[in-house]
Amino acid sequence: MTMETVFICQSDALEEGGKGVRFSVMAGSDEATGFVIRYAGGVHAYLNRCAHVPVELDWNPGEFLESSGLYIMCATHGAIYEPQTGHCSGGPCRGSRLRKLAVTEVDGKVIWTPDDYVRPVLA
Entry's CDD domains (predicted)? Predict the structure, then answer.
């Protein structure tokens, strides 16, 4: 199944180690959010759902990285995830990972390619 790409934001909306951009998705049959951040010069996107318990990660909208800017952190459980892989390297879900979403940057835009499980919300 081929999905069309979805515009998420302008590239300059994401600062290295700064706030992320949230966007609405359908995860299976559930409404949810995805998010994209800039880390190590690239863009990385995930389903906004902790691998331990399915709660959103950000403590304030768009605030996914902990204070050093080196890890994504779950505001509820304190689990820390590697921004480039989504792998949990500390906390109650150690060894698990976030669900990565396919994003690219094209002509100053961040573009998401949905998959069979995480899809756009239909209007």
Answer: Rieske
DSSP label at 117? S
Q: What is residue 44's three-state secondary structure?
A: strand
Both ends of the chain: CA-CA distance in Å? 20
Q: Name 33's Cβ contacts closer than 8 Å, sequence gap at least 6.
A: 22, 23, 24, 25, 47, 48, 56
DSSP 52-86: SSS----SSTT--B-TTSSSEE-TTT--EE-TTT-
CA angle 73, 77, 80 (to 5 degrees): 30
pLDDT tens digits, residue range 47-57? 999 998 889 99
